[in-house]
Amino acid sequence: MSLTIQHLGRLAVGLSLNPSLHLPTLRHNNNMTAGNQTSTSDFLLLAFSSHQELLFPLFLVLYLAALLGNVLILVAVGSDSRLQTPMYVLLVNLSLADLCFTSATVPRLLYALLTGDQTITHSACLSQVFFFLMAGNVDSYVLAAMAWDRYVAICKPLHYATVVTLPRCMVLLGAVWVGTALHSLLHTVLLARLTFCSNRILPYFFCDLHPLIHLACSDTSLNYMMILVEGGSVVIVPAICIVVSYVFIGAAVCQIRAPGGLRKAFSTCGSHLTVVILFYGTVVSVYLQPPGQMEGQEEPQDLVAIVMFSVVSPTLNPYIYSLQNREIKAALTKLFMVILQMP
Description:
Layout: H1 2-15, H2 28-37, E1 42-45, H3 52-79, H4 86-103, H5 106-115, E2 119-121, H6 122-155, H7 160-163, H8 166-192, E3 201-202, H9 209-215, H10 221-254, H11 261-287, H12 291-295, H13 299-324, H14 326-341
Helix pairs in contact: 1-10, 3-4, 3-5, 3-13, 3-14, 4-6, 4-8, 4-13, 6-8, 6-10, 6-11, 8-10, 11-13, 13-14
Family: Belongs to the G-protein coupled receptor 1 family.
Protein name: Olfactory receptor
GO molecular function: G protein-coupled receptor activity; olfactory receptor activity
C-alpha cells in the first residue's frame, strides 16, 4: 500500500508545480564530496557545478530582465488610472507571481555560481519550497482568471461590465493568494516533519518537493497522500478552466462573420494565449513525459526544461504582454516622457 501511494504521488508532485519527477542516480564520489562539504542540516545543490563563469552572467541577465519587465508592468498600471481595470489588475498579479517565482530560486543560484558555495540550510530549503509552490500556483490560477475574463469579453460582451467587476476580481485574487499560501504551507509543514538521511544531495539548483521527500528516512506516506489528493487538484482545476474557456472562445470566434472580427478576437486574447502555451508547455515538458523517456533522460536535459519552466517563462511573460498591448505601451511611453522631462 505504501509503495502504491508513493507511485501515484510521483505524478501528483509534478501537478503541484515542482519541476522534477525523478531524482537521477548520483555517483559514489559525489556522495563522498557531499559528506565533506555539508553539515548535518545542510543540503547540497549540485546543478551547474561547472562553467560558473559563463552561467553567472547568463542567469544574471535573465533575472534582471525578469525584474525589469515585471516592475515596468506594475509601474505602468499603477501610474495610469485608465489601466486600473479588472483585466490589468489580473496582469499586475501575474507579474507579482512571476517576480516571486524567479526570486525564490535565481538569487540563491547566482550566489552559488559566484561563490562556489552550493550548500543550502534546512530552513532556507523549506523557504524555497514554500515560495516556489505558492508563486507557481498563483500563476496557474491567475491565468485561469484571465481566461475567464477573455471568455466574458468575447462570448458575452454586453454583460462584461456587470460580470467582470473590480470588486469581484479583488475578492477572487484575495482568495487565490490566501488559498495558494495555505496550500504551500501545508506541504512545507508536512515536509518539515520529516527526518533526512545522511545523503542530502539534490541534483538541481533549488530545493524541490519530490527530491526532498525522496531523501527522507521517515515515513512519507502522508506527504504522498496529500500531494495526490490535495496537490493535484490545485493545478488540475485552473487548467480545466482555461481549456473550457478557450473551447467556448474558439466556438464564438468561428461564428464571427463581421470584417476584422477574427483579428479583433485574436488581439483580445492573443497575449494571454501565448503566455498560457508558454507556461503549460514548459510544465508538460518538465513532468508529463512517458515513463520510459523519463528514465532514459540525462540530467542536463532535465535542467534545460526546469530552467525554461522556472526562469525563462516568467521572464518572457511581461514582454509578451507589453509588446502586444497598445495600452501598456502607451502608458510606458507616457511614463518615460515624464521621466525624460524631469530636471
